[in-house]
Structure formats: C-alpha cells, structure tokens
Design brief:
InterPro entries: DUF5132 (IPR033456). The protein is mainly alpha-helical and about 100 residues long. Helices cover about 90% and strands about 0% of the residues. The termini are far apart.
C-alpha cells in the first residue's frame, strides 16, 4: 500500500478511473463469467438439460400439430374443389 502512495495515485482513484470507461462493466461481466463457469455450470446443468428437453418436446409436438393442420386444410380444400366441380357439372347438364 505504501508503494501506491509513492506512485501518486491510489487504488480508489484507479478503480474510479476504470469505472468511468464505458466497456469496463462488459469486460468485468465477461471475466466473471469465464472465471465462474466451471463452478456454476455443473450446478445448473440439470436445469439446463430439463429446459432443453422441454424445448425439444415442445418443438416436436408443434411440428406434428402443424403437419396435422396442413393436412386438414388440404383435405378441406380438396373437398371444396370437388364440390365446385360437381356444382359446375350439374349446371352444365340440362335438367331431365
């Protein structure tokens, strides 16, 4: 601590100077993340795994539901087209 006073600038002044820089917070968060990742990752791994599994399940169910909806719409469109063709043919034929 004596050496800091000899240089003319103290630790508080250096910290205050660093905190004025706009990228300091981002750098601090990045360094903290890298330093803490090996400790935190094993703790949150089960939660992350469950979340990812839920997301995959939700994606598969949604994909299936969309495929069923598309198939239903295609069936409805085919039925409507067939009805239009039947009506057109009935109008073209003279009444018996």
């Amino acid at each position: 601590m004596v050496m800091m006073h000899q240089e003319g600038i103290g630790l508080r002044a250096r910290v205050a100077e660093l905190t004025r820089h706009p990228n300091t917070k981002a750098i601090a968060v990045g360094v903290a993340t890298v330093a803490l990742a090996p400790v935190i990752l094993p703790l949150v791994k089960p939660v992350l795994k469950t979340t990812i599994k839920s997301g995959v399940t939700w994606y598969e169910k949604t994909k299936s539901a969309l495929a069923e909806t598309a198939e239903s719409l295609a069936d409805i469109a085919a039925e409507a087209k067939a009805e239009v063709q039947t009506e057109t043919q009935n109008k073209a034929l003279p009444p018996s």
